[in-house]
């Protein structure tokens, strides 16, 4: 019997969004999340390069994420 629980991409997206929303280090960033077969893409704008790194770390922590593509760009003010 296989007890492995598989997450749908929608579940992964929701979990990554939840993880990002709990991280006070990136609270003002505008990040969109997509997933295809567990490969998560982060896209959007942030004010600081560190936010980009923190968001990727958060996404990698989520169960079911196989890899992360980080397309977050720095917002020019």
| Class by SSE composition | alpha+beta
Helix content: 25-40%
The beta-strand count equals 3
**Biggest sheet, in brief?**
3 strands, mixed
Distance between the termini: 55 Å
Number of helices: 2
**Principal-axis shape:** elongated
CATH secondary-structure class: Alpha Beta
The CATH architecture designation is 2-Layer Sandwich
Account of the 3D structure:
There is one protein chain. This protein is 34% helix and 30% strand. It is of the alpha+beta class and 77 residues long. It has one domain: Histidine-containing Protein, Chain: A (2-Layer Sandwich). A three-stranded mixed β-sheet has the order 1-2-3. The longest helix is centred in the N-terminal third of the chain and has 13 residues, at 9-21. The radius of gyration is 13 Å and the shape is elongated. 25% of the residues are buried. The mean pLDDT is 92.
């Amino acid at each position: 019997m296989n007890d492995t629980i598989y997450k749908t991409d929608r579940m992964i997206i929701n979990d990554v969004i939840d993880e990002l929303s709990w991280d006070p280090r990136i609270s003002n960033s505008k990040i969109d999340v997509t997933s295809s077969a567990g490969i998560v893409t982060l896209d959007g704008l942030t004010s600081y390069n560190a936010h980009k790194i923190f968001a990727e770390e958060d996404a990698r922590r989520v169960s079911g994420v196989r890899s992360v593509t980080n397309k977050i760009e720095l917002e020019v003010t």
